[in-house]
């Protein structure tokens, strides 16, 4: 979960190898804490055009393959492809099935032929791509005319409670940055794809304490990978300051963590 504004600032984003390694390490623990990911991906599936059935679909950033399996059930007569940059995720997903092929690859440079897919589905993956214009360009190239790109991502405003609490504690970079929603609008509008829908929607999760939230982010592989993050262990005094600052946000349900989710459905013109 990083700031993926376009164009990216030099040194502002984590290296793709770090992202791949982090998610590979998280493969075994990911599904146990992926409540938000399941809710968002399920909502994205519901946003596909009614009656739409692709001959071939691609789960872009498939992770553990949860939605590859869902699409395998939704489109039993279609060929499924699942792609991820993290080999550990692919190794976890492959024996569980859902897709016909599991492919190691980069969303910014897809190893697929032109006009080869009827649907590209990507839930909570493209926020890791520093060049989102390249992701859209590749989607345009790979989609068949009339094909659909459906993606869910994260934008500015995500994890602001945690960000503000860390800022109060020590002022250092502890929380991944996100692309503004306006950038998603601009890049989608100029992609050559027809925007069928594009909106943001907040999803708020609640936790009993700060440790539960930070443990979940680590288990997802989505903990802090930003350049400028503090090195080494975080001192006890800073942790105490973080906890005290975050307590100011407490609600009756617990400590809130807000995710600003971008939902988009785009179509390649005939």
Automatic annotation (TrEMBL):
<dbReference type="GO" id="GO:0008757">
    <property type="term" value="F:S-adenosylmethionine-dependent methyltransferase activity"/>
</dbReference>
<keyword id="KW-0093">Biotin biosynthesis</keyword>
<dbReference type="GO" id="GO:0010340">
    <property type="term" value="F:carboxyl-O-methyltransferase activity"/>
</dbReference>
<protein>
    <recommendedName>
        <fullName>Malonyl-[acyl-carrier protein] O-methyltransferase</fullName>
        <ecNumber>2.1.1.197</ecNumber>
    </recommendedName>
</protein>
<feature type="domain" description="Methyltransferase type 11">
    <location>
        <begin position="58"/>
        <end position="151"/>
    </location>
</feature>
<dbReference type="InterPro" id="IPR050602">
    <property type="entry name" value="Malonyl-ACP_OMT"/>
</dbReference>
<comment type="pathway">
    <text>Cofactor biosynthesis; biotin biosynthesis.</text>
</comment>
<comment type="similarity">
    <text>Belongs to the methyltransferase superfamily.</text>
</comment>
<dbReference type="Pfam" id="PF08241">
    <property type="entry name" value="Methyltransf_11"/>
</dbReference>
<dbReference type="InterPro" id="IPR029063">
    <property type="entry name" value="SAM-dependent_MTases_sf"/>
</dbReference>
<keyword id="KW-0808">Transferase</keyword>
<keyword id="KW-0949">S-adenosyl-L-methionine</keyword>
<dbReference type="GO" id="GO:0102130">
    <property type="term" value="F:malonyl-CoA methyltransferase activity"/>
</dbReference>
<dbReference type="InterPro" id="IPR011814">
    <property type="entry name" value="BioC"/>
</dbReference>
<dbReference type="GO" id="GO:0009102">
    <property type="term" value="P:biotin biosynthetic process"/>
</dbReference>
<comment type="function">
    <text>Converts the free carboxyl group of a malonyl-thioester to its methyl ester by transfer of a methyl group from S-adenosyl-L-methionine (SAM). It allows to synthesize pimeloyl-ACP via the fatty acid synthetic pathway.</text>
</comment>
<dbReference type="GO" id="GO:0032259">
    <property type="term" value="P:methylation"/>
</dbReference>
<dbReference type="InterPro" id="IPR013216">
    <property type="entry name" value="Methyltransf_11"/>
</dbReference>
<keyword id="KW-0489">Methyltransferase</keyword>
């Amino acid at each position: 979960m990083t700031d993926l504004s376009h164009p990216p600032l030099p040194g502002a984003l984590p290296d793709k190898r770090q992202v791949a390694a982090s998610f590979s390490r998280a493969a075994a623990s990911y599904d146990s804490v992926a409540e938000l990911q399941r809710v968002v991906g399920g909502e994205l599936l519901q946003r596909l055009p009614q009656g739409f059935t692709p001959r071939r679909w691609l789960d872009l950033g498939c992770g553990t393959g949860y939605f590859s399996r869902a699409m395998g059930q939704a489109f039993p007569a279609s060929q499924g492809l699942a792609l991820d940059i993290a080999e550990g995720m692919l190794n976890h997903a492959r024996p569980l099935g859902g897709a016909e092929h599991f492919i190691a690859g980069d969303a910014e440079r897809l190893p697929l032929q032109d006009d080869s897919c009827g649907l590209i589905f990507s839930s909570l993956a493209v926020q890791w791509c520093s060049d989102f214009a390249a992701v859209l360009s590749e989607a345009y190239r790979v989609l068949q005319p009339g094909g659909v790109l459906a993606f869910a991502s994260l934008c500015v405003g995500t994890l602001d409670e945690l960000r503000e609490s860390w800022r109060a504690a020590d002022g250092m970079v502890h929380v991944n940055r996100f692309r503004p929603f306006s950038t998603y609008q601009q890049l989608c509008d100029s992609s050559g794809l027809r925007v069928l829908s594009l909106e943001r929607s907040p999803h708020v999760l609640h936790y009993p304490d700060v440790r539960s939230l930070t443990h979940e982010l680590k288990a997802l592989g989505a903990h802090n990978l930003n350049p400028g993050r503090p090195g080494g262990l975080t001192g006890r005094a800073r942790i105490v300051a973080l906890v005290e600052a975050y307590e100011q946000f407490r609600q009756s349900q617990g400590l809130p963590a807000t995710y600003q989710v971008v939902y988009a459905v785009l179509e390649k013109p005939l």
